[in-house]
Amino acid sequence: MAQRDSDMRKKPNILITGTPGTGKTTTASALAEATQFRHINIGDLVKEKNLHDGWDDQFDCYIINEDLVCDELEDIMEEGGNIVDYHGCDFFPERWFDQVVVLQTDNSVLYDRLSKRGYSETKISNNMECEIFQVLLEEAKESYPEGIVVALRSDSIDDITNNIATLTHWLTTWQTVP
């Protein structure tokens, strides 16, 4: 019987996902600092390594090339000790992650955050609908085993602090199955 990738890693990998504005990058950065894990912001990686197929004028963002991103990350993910942050999750191989965190934010808080970022009304509306209909939570549940997907509230600094404590505790107790 073949071993799972997580059985061979010495450290786990975490995916932090959620609608834009839910605090993914803030949470991932703070968690990486607290644990000395590597933080991989997929948006930054796409820009730095040119892992896209052009620009989407309607949503004011790059059109990510999912295959190029996965090829770029393959070796790094095998090592473990990574915290990946991105607003999508269904294209990443299931074997990469030991914990998938979906951050969720109250709509009034989210609207204010997206407005402060200068998002267009179209982009705000699209992201608000995603949050209302829990699109990313459903995507995570459909893409990963039930036991590794967790939804965490991310409305305030206190929520982020609590989430960091929860995830740090999970990381310190994580063990590979012999």
Sheet with most strands: strand arrangement: 2-5-1-6-7
CATH architecture classification: 3-Layer(aba) Sandwich
N to C succession of SSEs? HEHEHEEHEEHHHEH
Unreliable segments (pLDDT under 50, ≥5 consecutive)? none
- Give the overall form: globular
Taken together, the total number of domains comes to 1
Largest sheet, in brief, is: 5 strands, parallel
Overall strand count: 7
Describe the structure.
The protein is an alpha/beta fold and 178 residues long. The protein has one domain: P-loop containing nucleotide triphosphate hydrolases (Rossmann fold, 3-Layer(aba) Sandwich). The protein is 48% helix and 19% strand. The strands form two sheets. The protein has a five-stranded parallel sheet with strand order 2-5-1-6-7, with helices on both faces. Strand 3 and strand 4 form a beta hairpin. Helix 2 packs across helix 8 and helix 5 runs antiparallel to helix 6. The radius of gyration is 16 Å and the shape is globular. The two termini are 13 Å apart. The relative contact order is 0.22. The mean pLDDT is 93. GO terms for molecular function: AMP kinase activity; ATP binding; ATP hydrolysis activity. It is an enzyme of class 2 (transferase).
Layout: helices, strands, pairs:
Blueprint: H1 5-8, E1 13-18, H2 24-35, E2 38-41, H3 42-49, E3 52-56, E4 61-64, H4 66-79, E5 82-85, E6 99-104, H5 107-116, H6 121-132, H7 135-143, E7 149-153, H8 157-173
Parallel strand pairs: 1-5, 1-6, 2-5, 6-7
Antiparallel strand pairs: 3-4
Biased composition (Basic and acidic residues): 1-10
GO molecular function: AMP kinase activity; ATP binding; ATP hydrolysis activity
InterPro entries: Adenyl_kinase_AK6 (IPR020618), P-loop_NTPase (IPR027417)
